[in-house]
Design goal:
Layout lengths: L23 H21 L4 H7 L4 H16 L7 H13 L15 H7 L35
Helix pairs in contact: 3-4
Bound molecules: zinc ion (ZN) (2 copies).
Length: 152
């Protein structure tokens, strides 16, 4: 007997020969939801529990790609990974039991590591008080801005 395949989302019988578990309409709807979740992570650094439920309908590979894109994008923001970026990335990581090493990524900083780097008015090398807009530490000479190229 031939197996009748139904859309996992709406229950409609799938007539086409397809490996997809969803009908075309649901597939499009889910893709759109996925895009919205991606925006929410990228722009608002938010990942709601209801959004995790939606992401659970996607393949592991889709989730890993999403994590990689989010990690890369949020790392390249001005000032590097922000606290809220790390929180949202950790949430995504923990919800889907992702491992940075398996995705070829560097380990996300721990929140406790982050605290060490938080004061922006302190030189990370010598811990003397500095101004936030300094390119170089006037005390020890270390470079404070990643994009600063010293004149030789
Ligand atoms: Zn459907
Ligand atoms: Zn210094």
């Amino acid at each position: 007997m031939e197996e009748i395949k139904k859309c996992e989302e709406c229950g409609k019988v799938l007539k086409d020969e397809t490996d997809e578990p969803y009908c075309k309409q649901c597939d499009e709807k889910l893709d759109k939801q996925f895009d919205n979740i991606e925006d929410n992570i990228f722009i608002f650094k938010e990942l709601l529990d209801s959004e995790i439920k939606i992401l659970e309908k996607f393949d592991d590979e889709d989730i890993k790609d999403l994590f990689k894109r989010a990690y890369t994008k949020l790392s390249h923001e001005e000032g590097g990974l922000k606290k809220e970026s790390i929180i949202v990335l950790n949430k995504l990581k923990d919800s889907f039991k992702l491992k940075e090493s398996e995705m070829g990524l560097e380990k996300l900083p721990d929140m406790k590591d982050l605290k060490k780097t938080l004061p922006k008015d302190e030189c990370p090398e010598c811990a003397k008080k500095i101004k936030e807009d300094f390119n170089l530490c006037p005390y020890c000479g270390c470079i404070l801005k990643d994009d600063f190229v010293p004149r030789s």
